[in-house]
Design brief:
Length: 292
């Protein structure tokens, strides 16, 4: 297990005992940590970034990394600090990922970790100064795909999930923030590494379609904010536009910001013409009264 990465705080287990869905690998399998770049995760955990003056909103943050590793600094720690400064309490999640299929972290293991994180925030809302009806989720790249499953698969049942009090709480987010997300599983324009690491080397068409989340959008999907760049060569723009179009077709409120330049993996970075996208996110959060 990695050492605590935040001064005065550290990683907290999402489940009190063995996490469901896959056996825990032997100690020492996990790599990274000190630089918030983590691979072959051993235990699903989160770090809490509690706002000094909570405004009642909470956000679950999912770093990207192709379902192989977690880029948990610029797509995690920095994001948690950004929210906390604005009165929004955040948790950054170390969900289970690996490029080693022997660890068994295929679907729905990461999905269970994300759902558990939402439920944990809702369960602890009173302790953290959060309104349980104002809990969102945010994800980057493959974390954006995981976020998209959270806003579309909340009614799905996974038999591996436990019967403890937290797993009885609703896992439906109240809003979703998708940043250059992987979406189009089974399509040529998808990120193939994410497909392989999540679904295996030869996934069935049924499994690909189930995880092509543009096809999973319904009228129950919560409001969505989406940002993507036209010059993204890792996760082509059509991933984001497929999801935005599906939201529009189903009447889901969607705010979509597409920039000519930005590439991929920029987190909250301020370069190119996408440099002001966090300001647009603030505008959206204020408009929906999730931020004062």
């Amino acid at each position: 297990m990695t050492a605590p990465l935040v001064s005065g705080a550290g990683w907290i287990d999402l489940w009190p005992g063995e996490a469901p869905g896959a056996p825990r690998p032997k100690a020492g399998t996990e790599t990274g940590g000190d630089g918030w770049r983590i691979a072959h995760t051993e235990v699903p955990q989160y770090v809490l970034f509690k706002a000094e003056k909570p405004n009642g909103t909470g956000v679950v943050v999912l770093p990207g990394g192709g379902y192989a590793m977690l880029a948990a600094d610029h797509e995690g720690r920095q994001v948690g600090e950004w929210f906390a400064k604005r009165g929004i309490t955040a948790i950054v999640v170390k969900y289970r990922v690996s490029s080693n299929p022997a660890l068994g972290y295929h679907f729905p293991v990461p999905q269970m970790d994300a759902r558990r994180a939402i439920r944990t925030m809702r369960f602890k809302a009173g302790d953290w100064g959060i309104d349980p009806t104002r809990i969102g989720i945010m994800g980057f790249s493959a974390g954006g795909h995981l976020c998209s499953t959270a806003v579309t698969m909340f009614d799905d049942k996974f038999e591996q999930e436990t019967n403890d009090p937290i797993d009885q709480v609703s896992c439906r987010p109240d809003f979703g923030i998708l940043c250059y997300p992987v979406i189009a599983m089974g399509q040529p324009h998808c990120h193939q590494g994410s497909v392989r690491n999540l679904l295996g080397a030869n996934p069935s068409r049924e499994l690909l379609d189930r995880n092509n989340t543009a096809r999973r959008v319904t009228r129950k999907t919560p409001p969505i904010f989406l940002v993507h760049s036209a010059d993204d060569r890792a996760v082509p723009l059509r991933n984001g536009t497929d999801f935005a179009a599906a939201c529009a077709d189903k009447g889901v409120p969607v705010s979509c910001h597409i920039y000519a330049q930005g590439g991929h993996g920029y987190g909250l970075g301020r370069s190119g013409d996408s440099k002001n996208w966090p300001d647009r996110l603030e505008d959206w959060l204020r408009h929906n009264k999730w931020m004062k």
